[in-house]
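#struct-pred

JT: dropping the chains for the assembly here, can someone run the whole complex?
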Amino acid sequence: MTHIILRHHDVENIHELSVYQANGGYEGLKKAFSLGPKAVIDEVKKAVVRGRGGAGFPAGLKWGFIPGGDMQKYIVINTDESETGTFKDREILEKNPHQVIEGALIAAYAVGATKIYNYWRGEYMDAAYACEKAIKDCYASGLLGENILGSGFSCDFYNHFGAGAYICGEETALLNSLMGDLGQPWSKPPFPAQEGLYGKPTVVNNVETLANIAPILVNGADWYVGLGTDQSNGIKVVCLSGHVNRPGNYEIEMGKVTYHQLIYGEEYGQGMRDDKGFKALLPSGGSGPVVTADALDADVSFEGLNPFGSMMGSASIIVMDEDTDMVWATEKMTHFFKHESCGKCTPCREGTFWLEKLLIKINKGRGTQEDIQKLERVATQIQGKCLCALGEFATSPVLSTIKHFMDEYKAKVNTAVPVPAD
Amino acid sequence: MSDLVTIFVDGIELQVEQGATVVDASKRVDVDIPVFCHHPKLEPVGMCRMCLVEIGMPMRDRATGEPVLEEDGSPQINWGRGLQTGCTVRVADGMRVRTTTDVVDEARENVIEFLLTSHPLDCPICDKGGECPLQNLTMAHGLGESAFDFDSKMQNEKHVPLGELIFLDRERCIQCARCTRFQDEIADDPVIGFHNRGRALEIVTLSDPGFDSYWSGNTTDICPVGALTTADFRFGARPWELIPVASISPHGPEGANITMSTRQEAKSGGRVVIKRIMPRQNELVNEIWISDHTRFVHHFADAADRLTKPLIRKGGVLVETDWDTALTTVAEKLQAAGSSAAGLSGDRPSNEDLFAFQKLFRQGLKSHHIDLAASRIAGGDVTAQVGIASGSNLLDLGRGDVIVVVASDLHEEAPIWWLRVKQAAERGAQLVVLNVRPTRLDKFATHLVHYPVGEAVATVRQLLGAAQISDGASDQIGKIAEAIVGATNVVAFYGYEGLTYAETDVLAKSLANLLQVKNSDGHSHVGRVNNGLIAVWPHNNTQGAWDMGIHPALAPGYQSVDQPGRSAAEIYSGVQDGTVQTLFVMAADPVGDGLMNGRGLLDFLVVQELFLTETAKVADVVLPAQSWAERDGTFTNGERRVQRYYPAIQPVGESRPDWQIIEQIGHKMGLDKPHFAASLVFKKGIAAGVPQYSDMDYRSIAKVEKQYPDVGGEDLYYGGTSYENKHGLGQQWTSAAESGDVAMFTVPDVTPSAAGALPVIRTAALYTPGTLINRSDVLSPRMAQPTLHLHAADADRLSIATGDAVIVSVNGQSLQLSAHVNGAAPQGLALINGVSYAAGVLDAKIETA
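RK: done, full complex below.
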């Protein structure tokens, strides 16, 4: 298959500017310059590129919210890829940084931004160095800086390392962190499109989302709409991990591949490790509800898992085999959310702390039947009350495992050593 | 007033300003939406999630834009997908809010339960217990018991000093960020912040010394739990034992409204003592904030070295005596001196004291030899004409308005005004700052001028000239003049930093004339609400001293006297040359302040004081006065607002109110019988004798009206534990310009004080050592140290480095100072700080010690 985003599989050394350009690189940007900003936004709107960070908000709409006028505007690339089991943005930027830079430049041109900030997950050193080299090359070739390609459009690009916080993938927390403040989200409104970085209109886009932009301009929105399903246009890079034989990033056309194919397909996961039976998978890292075997025939798309009460999210699929202790796995995921909670809002700060305490108790065999009910109640109690989505996500593993694997919970409390009386 | 929108809260219809939050709007109809992180004075953040409510909007047909109606014709409401935080959602026309539904109740129960999982529940030993928002809201909205396992609670440090003044209990903190946001948004001292994340999120101090801010105490008021406490009050008393007494700050010209919380206690020998000072809401004066100076300075009232009995000199030493002997002696000596007797007063006493003092001299002795013992700044006669108009509120200034601040470091001299000026600038008012050196106001200034040493008056005159010509000159002065003349409202503050008394007089009159320049619509900036002049007086009742006629040439109400008496300077020289033989000093220490060289050739010196000051030590009779905490009275603030304070503690020893002592002396001299109460001194004396006060009495000054935001009422949670104002918002007296045009002032010429090679000026510090503040142990680590600030270039030239001990000779006095080379001083000007007042530009000699 010819790749659109993971083109480094097809073209050697595409991370180098000359190779990228020799393979149609920056043609999207030139096309954008010839169309003019409004037409670019219209084209991206028409293509309906839903955000690949997980929330699925259409990029064109987001760009369209940026007000006109002469004020400073910003494009911020969200490279704080921290969702459990997600590693696509790293590969995209490390192996082919120019496609993201080009996408960001098109976005900047479309909304009238003159500064691009790329906010990196702090641990992504290697990828950032690759990107930094690409930026230098762009400046040297007139693709960044003053009067890009003689278009009259000027734009700068800065890489910025985060300090290692999952929450900084939330756009407002990211902006706070970028401004040097504590990485905590703010209550929206104001939305970044109105008051974002330094109080100015700002677009925050995921890396993969931006990687889709240049191909859309080159091939046209109609081409893109022709790919995928009604509700999920185009292609998606999925991150496959867990108990499969061949984990990795795979580029698929949305709606055309099932989860079963991803796990067992020759060109994808090549089956369960050690030929174990399949038990469950997390379709979107820790933050989407767990699904079981009945969902395997669902296709990978924004809407594919709707009937199973889950979601594609960033398509970070963690596969678990029959030996997996689901209560243990839930504790691990809950620990992650507790550890990553920024602490700003009460339900998330206190709730994740409480959830973990209960799960540790149950896993250590000190839990009771009431503790399972309490666990479910606390998770429900968090829902619908948090400042941002993280708190909501934290309830997913707990509630979905209680729903699907109550017997495992019961087994833990049934074999419990009675708690000694004080 | 902004546009009003109509909303419905639990079915109650109300009109409220667009932009109000749902929580604040609901409060207007007494629907209390519980909050922890929200504070009506702070920007909303929506962190604690306690204020979750159902919010709906009328539906509109997408195609036609017409409202969608129910069958009964009422609008169909879209209630959204879930609960929303009432503190972050702004009202919109037609909005519906439901605060009493089951889902809202449940959310409140849930949030409270979450908060309590980490809270230590040590209410029985917590200072906040009894006035705690978390406690109250748990009672109102919490579950009876928690499902949380008590043994799983986090254990954190419980006594973390964030500095010498404020302690943090990390277990009690509920991470609402009210304190950090206050320091950030209101105080502009972001010296505390969050550290870490999640359940480990904790408050830390980022400054050295810790929590380095003049406003730190306010965080303990707005803290919705007992996490922040003051070193002064913590573990000192339980809130329900405290009796609140309304009072006025005894420091500074702003007249901050305070509450003294008092308690009778065994450990103080059964005396009633002040346990803490807290703000009392007055949106016209200090809103709900006070400086730490105001909060912690009160210890002088209970100081062990207060004078308790009258003293009389016998055989060369001061010995205790009875009141009758003391009063008789004073009366006889004064009467013998007659019209040659002189009187000097401080500007701390009440209007009643000051009125009685001048009456004793003017009526009893036919002497006009009365003055303030230490006058730093002229212009009471000017502000009487064109002072800020009555009915003004600095809180109303914003876009379109201009505030001018000349020769004053408001942050140090009048912190409440600094706060309000800064906030007006943040609301969009243009701020013009003119000073000889950088101050904390500079960063908020629209127009900033650092004039050369000695050119304060020249700069303001230039400004006046530019305003009068209004030729649209594009230089900076021209632009400032244009902004001032064209502004909707203008308030001008002037101070005395680096200026002589004569220079401040010129400054006041020049600014007064500047404010009187009419714009193209024929409007000037005097005599109208939110316009006029404000003098940055050095003390809490300097304004009252002007009003009461503590002046050799001005009788009460600014009435000229035919034959002016001696000024303070003339009295001091008279003391030295023997032409003044009899002197009465009230609430001042001219000897200690270096103004008077001992008792000179005085025949008789009587001092009326709280403490045995340097002046009192050389007196013939010392009369023990009561502090402001022990009695009632009125102070007049720099905005001419007359405000009442009330007795909080019992008199110390045999001390008496100043006015009473003076009237008793007068009575012995054959004047009227002493009044029975301060209120009668006000009614019979001041209201009758000071025209500006003729429409006032203790009842009119004590009037209150509903204030917004509604804090300090029964529901402590909304604004923290502030006190509602039940005892008076005060009354502003009318400036002359409000009842008709006033004439332009004739501005005299003045020569700036001569300066040497390196001019030196004395700058103010809020915590400058003095008679009162020295008695407050809690503030002693923060006291301003005697310091010489030098610019790096000047320091190089003088071979002085930071930390060097230097001797600066000023006016014949040698000051021991520590040198600081830190950017506070501009090149060519040295600043001395933390030392007693010295006027003008000083020709000082700087030497390394």
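JT: nice. The longest helix of chain B spans residues 102-118. The two ends of chain B are 61 Å apart (CA to CA).
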